[in-house]
Amino acid sequence: MPFIDDVVSHLKERVTGGLKKILPICVLSFFLSPAMAINAIDSANKALLYKVIDESQAGTRSAGHTQKLEALSQVLLGSVYVGGSVGEGEEGIYDKDPLVRFDVFDCTTYVETILAGAMSASSDEFEQNLMRLRYKEGNVSFVSRNHFPSLDWLPNNQDKLVDITSTVAGGAVSMAKTIIDKTAWYQHIGDDVIHCDVASSSDCLTLLTRLQGEGDAFDPEPAFLSYIPLTDLFLGEAKRTNQALLDRIPSGSVINMVRPDWPIKQWIGTNMNVSHQGIAIRKNGTLFLRHASVVHKKVLDENFVDYFSGYSASSTLKGFNVQSLKH
Question: Which of 11, 172, 188, 314 has the most CB atoms in a 10 Å sphere around its CB?
Answer without folding.
Answer: 188
